[in-house]
Structure formats: C-alpha cells, structure tokens
Amino acid sequence: MTERLNSWQPYALGLFRIAVGLLFACHGARALLGAFGGADGNGGTVEAGAWPDWYAAAIELAGGSLVLLGLGTRAAAFIASGAMAYAYFTVHQPEALWPIQNDGEGAALYCWAMFLLIFTGSGAFGLDRLFAGRTSAQEDRPERSPVAA
After folding, report:
1. Are 79 and 59 in contact (CB under 8 A)?
2. What is the DSSP letter of 41?
3. 15-69: per-residue pLDDT in tens?
4. What keywords appear on the UniProt entry (predicted)?
5. Is the dihedral of CA 25, 31, 32, 36 positive or negative?
6. Helical ranges in 34-126 per DSSP H
7. Could you tell me which of 6, 136, 138, 124 has the C-alpha nearest to residue 70?
8. Cα–Cα nearest to 39, from 62, 61, 67, 69
9. Residue 41 — φ and ψ, nearest 5°?
10. Per the CB 3.0–4.6 Å rule, which of 1, 35, 60, 117 could disulfide with 27?
11. Distance of CA 81 to the CA centre of its chain
12. Mind listing the pLDDT tens digit for each residue in 74-86?
C-alpha cells in the first residue's frame, strides 16, 4: 500500500502546489486588481506603493501565479513564505499568541505551505519539470564539432 501511495506522490504534490498557488494569487488579485470584491469589499484596491500592503499583494499575485504554474517554484515559494512570516509576526502575532486568537491562520498556513514547496519543488504538472526535461535532453546530446570552412 505504501509503495502505491508513494508512486502517486509527485501528482499529489503537483495538485497541492496548484491549489495553494491559485488561492495565494487570488489574495493578490483582490488587493491589486479589485477582484473578488476588492481590498475593501467594494472593488477597491490598495494604493500603489503603499507599505506593506501593496508589496504584500504584489508578492501574493506574482508568487502565487508562479507557484500555480510551477515556474521558479522554489524561489517564488521562498519569497512568499518569508512574506507570510513577516505578515504573521508584524500584523497578527502582536494581537495574541495563537493564530486562532489573532486571525493569523491564513498567514501561518500559507507560510508553512510555501515553506514545504521550497524543499519539495513543483511536483508533477509544473513548468519547472517541462523546462528541466528540455535542458537535460539538450545536455544528453553529443557536442558537434565545428565544420571547417
């Protein structure tokens, strides 16, 4: 049974990455683009360049999109995990110790989910694997000697 489950691990990881990336990108789209009711619930957006809201939203949208696509997954997840750790400790944790008390569950979960992706990579269905396949295929080809003219 364990072997069977292990054989499906890259696919489960790929689906996990897609779900986390999509949901994370939606947070950024809400704040930057006014999607899903916007940052204020009325379709509004955060002010461009406003610290830290605009930068957090940019990381959420760009990082979430990259994680969703599985493109530069580890680097995008590293930045996103750090952003969520910063959000948790500067916004949520001063309100109360536990995430359930300070409304920081989302930041904590995204931080740990992205942290996991730093070490696991994109899994199946990611563009990282597609490009890695092309690179290794090119490296496997024998080098051609230049033709003398």
Report:
1. yes
2. S
3. 999 999 999 999 999 999 999 998 888 888 999 999 999 999 999 999 999 999 9
4. Cell membrane, Membrane, Transmembrane, Transmembrane helix
5. positive
6. 53-69, 73-87, 99-102, 105-120
7. 124
8. 61
9. 85, -5
10. 60
11. 8
12. 999 999 999 999 9
What confidence tens digit (pLDDT) does each residue in 5-16 have? 999 999 999 999
Phi-psi region of 44 (alpha: psi -120 to 50; beta: other; left: phi over 0): beta
The single-letter code of the amino acid at 57 is: A
Distance CA 24, CA 32 (A): 13
Contact of 92 with 104, CB cutoff 8 Å: yes
Non-local (6+) Cβ contacts of 95 within 8 A are 101, 102, 103, 104
The Cα–Cα gap between 123 and 125 comes to 7
